[in-house]
Amino acid sequence: MSKELALFGAQPEFDSPLHVGQPNLGDRSRLQMRFDDILDRAWYSNNGIHLQRFEEAVADFCQVPYVLAVTNATLGLQIAVRALGLTGEVIVPSLTFVATAHCLEWEGVRPVFADIGPGTHNLDPQAVERAITPQTSGILPVHLWGRPCAVEAFEDLARRHGLHLLYDAAHALGSSHAGTPIGNFGEASILSFHATKMVNSFEGGAILLRDEALAEECRLLRNFGFAGKDRVISVGTNAKMHEFSAAMGLTSLEAFATFAEVNQNHYYQYCEEFAGLPGLKMVEMDPLEVPSMHYVVAIVDPAAGGLTRDDLLAVLEAENVLARRYFYPGCHRMAPYADRGPWDLPVTEDLLERVIQFPTGTALDSGHVHRIGQIVRKAFAQVDRVRAWRQRLEE
What's the CA gap between 342 and 333, in Å, rounded? Predict the structure, then answer.
C-alpha cells in the first residue's frame, strides 16, 4: 500500500479501464462455428435455426413454456405492455434503468413511481398499494441486481385490485425465488441480453410467458403482425432477434455456470477486501434465494467512513476503475418525469446517493479485485486528503 493514489498525481493502478459490465465471451471457437453455419445457410433473420435453439435453451433454463427472443429488452417491455393492453398509469420503481419507465411512456402509459424497500432495493409492495388510483392498470416491478422481488405480495396486490403484473427481469437470468426460476411470476417477464449482461447476445432480450394466447399476441407484435407468409392480422413492429445475436446468446448461455462462478468468487473476495472498513458495506445476498450474481453492489456511509460515494468514485476513476453509481439520478429526476413531481421517494433518493457497483466478470481475476481493494483501503486511510482534493475541484 505504499503507492500514492492516482488522484494525487501518481500513475493509475491499471493501464486499461476496468468496467462494471465488460462483456463475457464464452467459447470463441464454438461461436465461430455457429457464425460459419449461419453464413453457409445464408439465413440471417426471420426465425432461423439458431434463434429457435436459443429460445428453446432459454425456455429450458428458466423452466417456462414460451420464450420470444427480441432485438432488445426495451422492445420486449414495450411489446408486453401493448399485448397486455395497459392504459392510464402503471406503477414502477425509480431506481432502475430509464428504459423501464420509457417503455411505458412510449406506449402512451404514464409511469407512476413508488418507493423501494430500505433493505431490498426493490419496489415496496406497501408503497405500491398507496400509489394505486382508479387510473392504475398495472404494476411493473424490477428484480434489481438480480435479487428477486416480493412476488407473492405483488401477486396478491394485482389480484385484489384487478391489475396486470409484469416484471423487468433484465438483471435476473439465473435468479430464483423459493426454488422457482425468475420468469415464472406475473404475466410476463423480460430478460436483457445486452452486451453488459452476464449472458449476452451482443444486444438482445427475451419475453418469458406462461400463457399461450398472450405469447401468440407478443409473437404477432414482434413481427409486424404477420400470421403467415403474407397475412397481416394486426399492427406490429420489427423486434426480431437475428441469427448472429442468437448464436452469441446460445454460446454465452452455455457458459453461464462459469460466468456465475467467476462473479460469485469476485463478490466474496470483495467482501474480504472490504471487511472492517467503516463506511463501506456490501449488499448481502439472501441465503434463502438464488440471485444472478450479475452485479457487485456496495453502500457507502459517509457518516461512518468520512467519504461520500462520489469521493470514492473519483478515487477509483483516477485509477482506471470505472465503478458506477447505478441508477443515478433516478428516473423520477429525468425528463420528462421530473416535471410531473414532486415524487415522495425518500428511500430511493437516499440510496441513489450511496450505492456503488464494482467491476466484475471474466475480464477480471483475483489479482484485479485485490488491487481494487487496496485502492479503496488507501482512500479510506486518507479521508481528509481525498475530501480536500474534491472540494478544491468543485470550487
Answer: 10
Averaged confidence pLDDT in the chain: 95
pLDDT in tens, 78-93: 999 999 999 999 999 9
The answer to whether 361 and 263 have CB atoms below 8 angstroms apart is: yes
Domain residue ranges in the chain: 6-22+256-323+359-394, 28-254
pLDDT > 70? residue 148: yes
* DSSP-derived secondary structure letter, 6: G
pTM for the complete prediction? 0.96
pLDDT digits (tens, 9 = 90+) for 30-51: 999 999 999 999 999 999 999 9
**Dihedral angle, C-alpha 136, 138, 142, 147, nearest 10 °:** 110
CB of 171 closer than 8 Å to CB of 194: no
Read off the DSSP letter of residue 223. B
Q: Do 20 and 321 touch, CB atoms closer than 8 A? A: no
Alpha helix (H) residue ranges in 123-199: 125-131, 151-161
The answer to whether 343 touches 110, Cβ cutoff 8 Å, is: no
Half-sphere exposure of 89 (CA within 13 A, CB side): 14
Would the pLDDT of 369 be above 90?
yes
Contact 208, 201 (CB under 8 A): no
Determine the pLDDT at residue 395: 64
CATH superfamily, region 6-22+256-323+359-394 = Aspartate Aminotransferase, domain 1 (3.90.1150.10)
CATH number assigned to the domain covering 28-254: 3.40.640.10
* Element containing residue 371 per DSSP (H, E): helix 366-381
Main-chain phi, psi angles of 212, to 5 degrees: -65, -40
Query: 370: exposed, middle or buried (C-beta count within 10 Å: 0-12, 13-18, 19+)?
Result: middle
Label residues 354-363 b or e (16+ Cβ within 10 Å = b): bbbbbbbbbb
